[in-house]
Design brief:
Helix 6 links the parallel strand 7 and strand 8. The protein contains 7 helices and 10 strands. By secondary structure, the protein is of the alpha/beta class. It is globular and about 50 Å long. Helix 5 packs parallel to helix 6. The protein has a single domain, classed as 3-Layer(aba) Sandwich (Rossmann fold). Helix content is 34%, strand content 27%. A 6-stranded mixed β-sheet has the order 6-7-8-3-9-10, with helices on both faces. Strands 2-1-4-5 form a 4-stranded antiparallel β-sheet, covered by helices on one side. The N and C termini lie close together (7 Å).
Length: 232
Amino acid sequence: MATGGEIVVRLDEVRRHYGETAALDGVSLEIRAGEAVAVMGPSGCGKSTLLNMIAGLDRPTSGTVTVHGEELSELDETGLALFRRRRIGMIFQFFNLLDDLSALDNVALAAQLTGTPATHARRRALQLLDELGLADRATMYPTVLSGGERQRVAVARALMNRPAVLLADEPTGALDSHSGEQVMDLLLDLHQIGQTLLLVTHDERLAERCVGRVVELADGRVTGERSLEGTA
């Protein structure tokens, strides 16, 4: 999908040190509205740390992270929690669903935490589950859903608050090939309707299928970028 919109995510010379180890070492990156970007590189190169910075789950040692016009360093912990709930959707490799809540309640909870009345939250949650082909699974609990179904519930939850950016950390990593294909199709659909996406993945097929740009990371540094706009 061609993009030329506003910059939704900007990292400027971001460094994150853990003792003597530099997980990120001067990373600068911009992602525009409607872009789908994959961050790829070997294990331990800083991919998940980068995602955590954008989500406000971790703070840089130096440099700035700005998302949807908010510089995250200016927010306290309460402000960061509100920012995550309102601006960020997150999809995890192992789903991170609450086993004691139904699929519907897992999705609705994301909106209720921002103050949305339960009735409205459940209505939107059911709409999203229906759009993702899960209306008939809404009352079921995660333990009886397949891996692919659980990941689609997680995607619905991530979309619940209409996030400025959707972050996905190895979203197909725990899935069999068939379920992985379903999630790839879903991410591609989201890209094509204009959702801003940032994926962390080892899966070259996922990148080729779902994104327009790949950022290569090694030893905490951006080592290159390439366009896949013709294939996404």
